[in-house]
Amino acid sequence: MSDLSGKRALVTGGGSGMGAAIARALADAGATVVISGRRMEPLAELAATSPGMLAMTADVTDEASVKALFKRITSEVGELDIVVANAGAAESAPFHRTSLDLWRQMLDVNLTSVFLTFQQALAGMMKRKQGRLIAIASTSSLKGYAYVSAYSAAKHGVLGLTRSLALEFADTAITVNAVCPGFTLTPMLERSIETIVEKTGKSRDEAIATLTKTSPQRRFVLPEEVAQSVLYLCGPHSASVTGQALSISGGEV
Ligand code: NAP
Predict the structure, then answer these.
(1) Which residues in the chain are classed under CATH 3.40.50.720?
(2) 30 and which of 5, 11, 111, 162 could share a cystine (Cβ 3.0–4.6 Å)?
(3) Is 218 exposed, middle or buried (0-12, 13-18, 19+ CB in 10 A)?
(4) Whether the predicted model's global pTM rises above the 0.85 cut
(5) Which of 38, 142, 194, when mutated, tests ligand 1's pocket best, judged by the most ligand atoms within 8 Å of its CB?
(6) C-beta of 44 in contact with ligand 1 (< 6 A)
């Protein structure tokens, strides 16, 4: 296991699901971890479980809010070594019913959020020429799925951003990678299961089977499995891994 003692990390969307599992794994490895999101309640609840975690609210779609978050982290915690852009949201709709509003929401929360977060993170990392940037992308970054064209377009964009940034910083000790989970057991997936039940009249078990059948392993990914891959990308043995999309999907893609 990586020893991250003395390292400082930020996990956006760290109050629930994958972000919470990533924050726990980083804190267990010895890092000081700032978790952020819009709602203080889940953040405070998680932070109370570990002395190495601090809760700070921020909206990753709002430039001023992201800037204020990084300013606060620099003054209260110090320069960040690790930034995990995990916050995101998934709304589904057939393409012909995808409004411009929904399209923009999906791009804002899943792609522009990574741009804003990484840009602020790099301001500090560039000074020290070291750092780890990780985007929680998706198998939707690597293949299409019906009824989530806006989400998938945004997640494909995250990969383009990751690969380009990795090249821009290849002559430093800053690495930039994307982790691409398949369907993972989190509150977001719970909402997707509910939507399928609601919109198709399928039972919960049938809805689950519809989703798990996309994975050759015929199961959902666990948030802890994603967290361990993030831990690897933060540790000393991944220094030459950059610009990569690490698929955690039971062989789906
Ligand atoms: P989740 O439990 O719904 O977590 C999403 C987190 O993002 C929440 O903590 C939420 O906190 C935060 N968030 C949403 N909008 C935000 C905003 N505007 N500003 C700041 N924080 C915001 O879902 P999850 O499954 O763990 O998702 C984590 C990441 O994994 C996402 O990027 C998602 O696209 C990706 N992913 C998920 C799956 C899956 O099957 N679950 C598969 C592949 C990829 P607040 O509501 O308090 O802001």
Answers:
(1) 8-184+222-248
(2) 5
(3) exposed
(4) yes
(5) 38
(6) no
Residue type, 45: E
What CA–CA distance (Å, rounded) separates 193 from 204?
7
Q: Which CATH number fits domain 8-184+222-248: 3.90.1720.10, 3.40.50.720, 3.40.190.10, 3.40.390.10?
A: 3.40.50.720
Does the annotation count 147 as an active-site position? no
- Residue appearing with tokens 């990969």: 159
For a substitution probing ligand 1, which of 186, 219, 249 has the most ligand atoms within 8 Å of its CB? 186
With beta carbons less than 8 A apart as the criterion, state whether 110 and 155 touch. yes
What is the rounded distance in angstroms from the CA atom of residue 108 to the CA atom of residue 59?
11
Per the residue annotation, which of 145, 147, 151, 232 is the catalytic one?
151
Per-residue pLDDT of the chain (253 residues; tens, 9 = 90+): 689 999 999 999 999 999 999 999 999 999 999 999 999 999 999 999 999 999 999 999 999 999 999 999 999 999 999 999 999 999 999 999 999 999 999 999 999 999 999 999 999 999 999 999 999 999 999 999 999 999 999 999 999 999 999 999 999 999 999 999 999 999 999 999 999 999 999 999 999 999 999 999 999 999 999 999 999 999 999 999 999 999 999 999 9
